[in-house]
Structures are given as structure tokens and as C-alpha cells.
Design goal:
Elements (H helix, E strand, L loop, with lengths): L3 E6 L5 H14 L4 E8 L3 E4 L5 H4 L2 H6 L3 E4 L7 E3 L3 E9 L5 H13 L5 E4 L3 E4 L2 E10 L3 E9 L4 H7 L4 H7 L11 H4 L5 H16 L3 E2 L4 H14 L2 H5 L7 E7 L2 E10 L2 E9 L4 H4 L2 H5 L6 H9 L8 H14 L2
Length: about 325
């Protein structure tokens, strides 16, 4: 089987459309494929798959100012995008997905401008001790993607205005503000622009993988992308069903924050919703359905959670959550 390497630079600035393109590529990726996808947005806040839009950003102010709210299909936290921020995505089949090589493209491109960058923790790329790229991940049947931001000349004042960081997140990470822990690459090298970084990424991608071809869109592809974009801009997708719940359990662990919202009838859980900035968005999908019908008692809840099918890597998530609920004494 011959590997195929593609690239696409999206000229549109609408996050509902750009994220639809990415989702289409992931759905249709073929064995042997690697795609580097680059895109930019006008003022937007992008929230993770399981985040509560009401709690994560000041969306009313954002929309009043002409910005857009969007929800991606990957996990992780809320981010602010503007035209001074370049976004990347590596979409690959399972046989060609290689986080080390994908990160090497990122680090090599930064090094072109004399910036020594490094991958830190689970999802940050750092330079000069501060983050300029937050990354998130998504796995589907045909392949996976690794995507993120590259802060080049983003408006930090707007970032602080629109992102509402919860108090528990600030305390758990020991930070004083959103603005204090990020850096624009232009501060480190005034010559960097989004266009120059785009060119550097394409060159680093070519050097690592070989000469890429433009992504082969068809009329049918654009039609499908259009349908995904319509869903992306819908109220249901952005805000979802938000009924009044009887019980809210909210806490934070090393792997991320989680908020369980439970609706009860006769002491049994009849409806559940999960909000989280955990990176493993697909696994978060499995928690709420597992609680339906469970008695609202700590021991029963903990057992339901521990019984959720999971991999060894996901064991810590379930153990942390179950142990926390046991200690609450419901």
C-alpha cells in the first residue's frame, strides 16, 4: 500500500465551515493517508465537545461583538481564535498516525524562526516557558486527528475578555490569569506572521513526509461539508439540551474537570449530562448513559462508574471519579 500525503489551506474564516472540513476529512481518511490542514478564524471561541458553553466563555459578549461560538468534536478546553492565530490539524489513518512525527513538523517550523519549542504535558507546545499552542485529539473508526492553535499575533485582551476560566481551574493549575501563561510567537520573533508560519509548516511537512498533494475535494464532499457546517452553527449543537437538573456534582482532577448533572425520579437517575474538558472526549460520551437507572447512592453510583468498559489508560478517570463520589456520602 502506498502512502498518500495531502494538504489544504482553508481560505474561509468561519469556524463552523472550517471544523466541518476537518470532520469530513477524518470521516473519509483512507489507509496510508496523512493530511495537514491549516485554517484561520475571525474572532471566535471554540469549545471542547463536552464543555458547557454557558460556563466556559462569555458568549453573549462575543456574539454582540460580531464573533462566533463553535464546538469541536475533540476534547479539551475553550480557546480564543482570531486572525493572529493559525490553526493546524493532522488527520491520518490509524496506520499512519504518528504524534511524534506530527509534533516534529510543528517544532521544526518554529525552529525556522529561531524559536526552541517543546511539547509539554499532554497537550501544550511551549516556548520561553509559556504556551503558544494548545492541542487536542480525536479518534474515529477510520483514523484520528491531532489539532491545535498557534498563537502568532493574537489579541490577548480579547482572549481575556471572552474566555471565562472557572475558579477551580485557576486554583488547581496555580495560575493567576489566562493571559499570564500564553505567549504570541511575535513576541519572540517580530518577523513571524501567520503567512510565514504557514509556509514554514508546509516546508517542514514536506521535509518530514515527502511532497504533499492538494486535498482532492469533490462536489459531493462539499455538499457533505455544507451539511456538517449547518449542524455546527445550530443552537442544539452549540448549547444542547440544558434542563433543570436536581443534582450537580462538580470537581477537578489531574486529567481535567468534570460536571455531572443528574435528574432524579424516585431516587433513580432518569437523565444525566456530562460536561468536561478532559482530552478523551469519546470516553466522556460513555459516562452519562451508564448512570441512567442507577440509584442515587454513593456506592451504587461508584459501582456504575467502575463498570463502564474502559482501557487501562482510562482506568484513572473512572477510579478518580468513583472514589470522589464514594467520599461524598450520598
Amino acid at each position: 500500500m502506498q502512502n498518500r500525503f495531502f494538504y489544504y489551506i482553508n481560505p474561509k474564516l468561519d469556524p463552523h465551515q472550517t471544523l466541518a472540513v476537518e470532520e469530513y476529512m477524518l470521516k473519509h481518511v483512507q489507509p496510508g493517508d496523512v493530511i495537514m490542514y491549516l485554517y484561520t478564524h475571525e474572532d471566535s471561541v471554540i469549545i471542547g465537545k463536552h464543555q458547557n458553553a454557558w460556563a466556559e466563555c462569555r458568549h453573549e459578549r462575543l456574539l454582540a461583538d460580531g464573533g462566533k461560538l463553535a464546538r469541536r468534536i475533540s476534547g479539551g478546553g475553550a480557546v480564543f481564535h482570531d486572525v493572529g492565530n493559525l490553526n493546524f490539524s493532522f488527520i491520518a489513518a490509524h496506520d499512519t498516525y504518528d504524534l511524534h512525527r506530527q509534533l516534529k513538523v510543528m517544532l521544526d517550523a518554529a525552529n525556522t524562526f529561531g524559536i526552541h519549542a517543546e511539547f509539554s504535558g499532554r497537550n501544550d507546545i511551549m516556548a520561553d516557558g509559556r504556551k503558544f499552542s494548545g492541542n487536542a485529539f480525536c479518534r474515529r473508526k477510520n483514523g484520528s486527528f491531532h489539532h491545535g492553535t498557534i498563537l502568532i499575533d493574537s489579541d490577548m485582551n480579547k482572549l481575556s475578555q471572552y474566555l471565562a476560566v472557572s475558579k477551580d481551574k485557576i486554583e488547581s493549575k496555580g495560575i493567576s490569569s489566562v493571559r499570564a501563561r500564553v505567549v504570541n510567537l511575535k513576541e519572540l520573533n517580530p518577523d513571524i506572521t501567520p503567512q510565514k508560519m504557514t509556509e514554514a509548516l508546509l516546508e517542514a511537512y514536506r521535509a518530514e513526509y515527502g511532497k504533499p498533494q492538494p486535498y482532492p475535494f469533490t462536489d459531493e464532499a462539499w455538499a457533505e461539508i455544507g451539511e456538517i457546517a449547518k449542524r455546527n452553527e445550530s443552537w442544539d449543537w452549540l448549547f444542547g439540551e440544558s434542563p433543570q437538573f436536581d443534582i450537580t456534582i462538580k470537581t477537578r482532577f489531574a486529567w481535567g474537570g468534570i460536571e455531572l448533572m443528574l435528574d432524579l425520579k424516585d431516587a433513580l437517575i432518569r437523565k444525566a449530562q456530562v460536561f468536561s474538558d478532559a482530552m478523551d472526549a469519546d470516553f466522556m460520551d460513555t459516562i452519562a448513559p451508564a448512570l441512567i437507572g442507577c440509584a442515587f447512592r454513593s456506592a451504587d453510583l461508584a459501582q456504575c462508574i467502575r463498570n463502564i468498559p474502559h482501557t487501562p489508560e482510562q482506568d484513572a478517570i473512572l477510579n478518580d471519579l468513583a472514589s470522589y463520589i464514594e467520599k461524598q456520602g450520598y
